[in-house]
Amino acid sequence: MKNLRIISALIAVAAVIGIWIAMDGRKALNPAPRQDVASRVAERNQSPAAPTVTVVEKSPFNLEYGMPSGSVVKDLEIVERTLADARLLVKDHYRIPLADNRDFTRFLSGGNSHAVAWIRPGHPKINAAGELTDRWGSPIIFHQETSNRTSVRSAGPDLKPWTADDLASPLRSAEVGLADSHPSIANE
User: Fold this and answer.
1) Is the N or C terminus of the chain more exposed, i.e. has fewer CB atoms within 10 Å?
2) Residue 186 banded pLDDT, cuts 50, 70, 90
3) pLDDT reading at 69 higher than 70
4) Rounded Cα distance, 171 and 134, in Å
């Protein structure tokens, strides 16, 4: 009787192993079609449907940036404050690579994890390359100092960055003492 149970158990185990081998063999005979590398890369690079962007219509940027009654220094201050406001909401901003003007403009135009735009779509101060520009049409210079600190500059009327007529945000200038040494900043 004991031998009969052992034989029955061995037969059951053999049957399970036989079924498993047969199923695995079918997979080996009919493998799932493999995608070529280009198809897999293209599939991976497809972005999901873009989220609906919420525009902060009454942000200081949308209401005041580039207005005739303002000044370049006021505009730079608005950019710096707008960036600070964005960083307060978007807690994971440090994960977003912000290397140049286009990156900062994209981030402030809704390209962030909250899909909030402090700069409305089609703002007249964003050029065809997607860069935020100053009153002379030159791209604003963003310099990421730390994950929470960015200096904002204008190339000035000569349109050449890093020359004597460049203008910096008064917020940053006051911190580093530039307002006293640069008359155009101190007087505006």
Assistant:
1) N
2) very low
3) yes
4) 17
Residue with tokens 């008359």: 183
In terms of pTM, does the model score above 0.85?
no
Domain boundaries, the chain: 54-187
**CA–CA separation, 136 and 13 (whole Å):** 82
**Pairing relation of β-strands 141-146 and 149-154?**
antiparallel
| Adjacent-strand bridge partners of 78 | none
Task: Tell me how crowded residue 153 is: count the other CB atoms within 10 A of its CB.
Answer: 20
Q: Report how far residue 43's alpha carbon sits from residue 160's, in angstroms, rounded to the nearest whole number.
A: 42
Helix or strand holding residue 85 (H, E)? helix 72-89
CATH of 54-187, one of 3.30.700, 1.20.1740, 3.30.1300, 1.10.150: 3.30.700
